[in-house]
Amino acid sequence: MKIFNTKQINLVKKSLDVYQKQHEAIAQNIAHANDPDFNRVKTDFSQVLKTSLSGPMRVTNEKHLSQISEPLRKSTANSEDERVDVSADMGALAENQIKYEFASRALSRIYRGLNLSITGRSS
Question: pLDDT tens digit string along 71-95?
């Protein structure tokens, strides 16, 4: 049904997938921090979210964010950048978890609203 396949729902679902993949990549980097042969996993998934948006999101209030903030960027341009910085990656992991929880709550709120609209009562 179209009611469960809106642009907003698809964007939130896509963001949950992106944050999940980003979490796995950061966790893998942390797990291999002491491995000298390990090349860090790139954790820049911002293009995935950007391509899922066909156009700019509508802003209805001046306090709304004008665009989605970009997820963590990690460069693998040279060998120094390939080393794992556990402190920075732990911070990135915490930030990513907050973003994931926010998107999860947003999707839950959307579905609760649909449930209320369909049934006429909250559960």
Answer: 444 444 334 556 778 898 999 999 9
- The 8 Å CB, 24+ separation contacts for 93-100 are 93/23, 93/26, 93/27, 93/30, 96/19, 96/22, 96/23, 96/26, 96/71, 96/72, 97/23, 99/15, 99/19, 99/71, 100/16, 100/19, 100/20, 100/23
In the chain, how many domains are there?
A: 1
Q: What tens digit of pLDDT does each residue of 30-62 get?
A: 999 888 888 888 776 666 656 655 555 566 766
Are 84 and 33 in contact by the 8 Å Cβ rule? The answer is: yes
**Token pair in block for residue 21:** 């993949």
Tell me which residue range forms the domain holding 28.
2-119
Q: What is the pTM of this model?
A: 0.67
